[in-house]
Amino acid sequence: MSGIAAVFHFDGSNVEGGTLEFLTQEMHYRGPDGITHWHGAAAALGFCAMHTTSESLLSTQPLISEDGNLVLVLDGYLHNLEELREELRARGATLRDRSDAEVVLRAYEVWGEDCPLRLEGEFAFVIWDSRRRSAFCARDHAGLRPLHYHWDGKRLTVASDSGAVLIAPGVPQDLNKEIAAQVVASDWITRGETIWKGVKRLLPATWARFGRDGMRSETYWSPTTEVMIRYSRDEDYYEHYRELLENCVRRASRSHLPIASDVSGGLDSSAVFAVAEDLRRSGQLLAPEVKGYTFKFEAGSDAFELDYARSVAQHVGADVQEIEPFLPELEWFAERGRLDRDLAPYPNSVMAVSIGEALTKDGCRACLNGEGGDE
Fold it and tell me: In whole angstroms, what separates CA 101 from the centre of its chain?
């Protein structure tokens, strides 16, 4: 994932020099392809680039409109990029390149606060609108890309990582004891809060606008429970589901690099891997190659899944690399939490560090894993 950061002052003061660079440096690991900045008097936006698609190579972020009134930073990509391009052109928009960032910027110009509802994919973005003297932020439907912020009514700090927000000037570093209690009890009931007081996360399927008049936010989408599909044959349900799954995997596979796929041997990852490989063979995959990876746990343990993963590999007719899981000592988690200025990740997430190293070595920067977002 790339990283985004922004600082806005609505009290008439200028953004201090070096403040934005301090935030993006905190997220340097998100920017292997470079870190760039844009500075205005009351606003500053930064981008930590990790290119995963050929389209992302076409534009430089922060992305500025021709008249200079809009500045955007975007982490993510769109599933409906081509459909949006056609619709925007039909509405008279001029697209300077094929990048996702350009489409999001034009979508905001055309639809304003309704633009996130038009977007499908994984995204978190911030737009400085100098005409309205406001900052517009949005997050994707499922919360697949993170976005954190601190707002005191006059100054706004936004970043992909909560740790980057925390180190900004004026942000208190006070423990949020209510969230700490929920963590200890493993009973999460509060949405939008973090382990630090005043550092919040924008909720999934939500946009927010900040300005001199305060903050407004809105949930722009929620899953419907009223849609019913009725077929006369079971086979029709199977075909419908297969079409949906193939379409989702194909759209999520857009990359100019090989794409990775987790293969645990379970139903979800096995289905995603099998469909991705089938799409590759038929020339429909939007990546040049798909590579499978699975954990190699100790035989006889409850976590041993190699028999299932190997069966999937044999059935699909494609190799699945078997990777030793990363199982660090307790001290590693304490150090990770200190460095991130956040809760240490759970062990079942940390195990994937070894797979991450393997897929990076193999030239992959994106992974199909079927996981949902966070709250």
Answer: 14
Task: State how far the Cα of 204 lies from the Cα of 139, in Å rounded to an integer.
Answer: 6
Top-tier CATH class for 234-368: alpha beta
The chain-wide mean pLDDT, for the chain, equals 95
Asked if pLDDT for residue 370 goes beyond 70, the answer is: no
Rounded distance between C-alpha atoms, residue 230 and residue 232, angstroms:
7
CA atoms of 293 and 1, how far apart (whole Å) = 19
Average pLDDT over residues 74-101: 96
Q: Where are the domains of the chain?
A: 3-219, 234-368
Q: Which residues contact 75 (CB under 8 A, 6 or more apart)?
A: 1, 2, 3, 4, 123, 124, 125, 145, 160
pLDDT tens digit string along 233-250?
999 999 999 999 999 999
Query: Please, which pLDDT band fits residue 371 given cuts at 50, 70 and 90?
Result: low
φ and ψ at residue 122, rounded to 5 degrees: -115, 120
pLDDT at 373 over 70: no
Q: With 50 as the cut, is the pLDDT of residue 354 above it?
A: yes
pLDDT of 372 > 70? The answer is: no
Cα–Cα distances (Å) from 67 to 64, 71, 357, in that order, read: 8, 10, 43
User: In the CATH scheme, what is the homologous superfamily, with its name and number, of domain 3-219?
Assistant: Aminohydrolase, N-terminal nucleophile (Ntn) domain (3.60.20.10)
3-state secondary structure the chain: CCEEEEEEECCCCCCCCCHHHHHHHHCHHHCCCCEEEEECCCEEEEEECCCCCCHHHCCCCCEECCCCCEEEEEEEEECCHHHHHHHHHHCCCCCCCCCHHHHHHHHHHHHHHHHHHHCCEEEEEEEEECCCCEEEEEECCCCCCCCEEEECCCEEEEECCHHHHHCCCCCCCCECHHHHHHHHHCCCCCCCECCECCCEECCCCEEEEEECCEEEEEECCCCCCCCCCCCCCHHHHHHHHHHHHHHHHHHHCCCCCCEEEECCCCHHHHHHHHHHHHHHHCCCCCCCCEEEEEECCCCCCCCCCHHHHHHHHHHHCCCEEEECCCCCCHHHHHHHHHHHCCCCCCHHHHCCHHHHHHHHHCCCCCEECCCCCCC
